[in-house]
Amino acid sequence: MTFDSPRKHMMTLAQSSFGNGDFLLWMFEFFLFVIWFWLLFMVFSDLFRDHETSGWAKTLWIILVIVLPYLGVFIYLIARGRGMAERGLKQQQAMKQQMDAQIRSAVGTGMSPTDQIAQAKSLLDTGTITQAEFDVLKAKALAS
User: Residue 33: how many CB atoms within 10 A of its CB?
Assistant: First the structure.
């Protein structure tokens, strides 16, 4: 009966799990797992972003993607892939317009220069601002 040292036993264990490609296979499987969830997220977000598709069609797509996972996602990407990009672009444009409108309202530059000068003139007439402040506001309005 021979006794192997614990270090020799650990070395063969490490070699058996990393030496024959198991680690690379595990990394590849993990990568596919992450990609799968990313694709699911993209498909589901596109389904719920689309306002033209009925609720029944969305339900059928979700069932297809859950029952036949990879095949369902690939069919969805083939059938509705171009629309995904268009819907994403439309949503980004709408979000940009909304943000621009919010910034304009916060800054208060939604008025034309003529309106700004008229508002400053009314403030001058009521005595709220001085002639120097009116001139500054007028210069800013004309510069924009």
Answer: 10
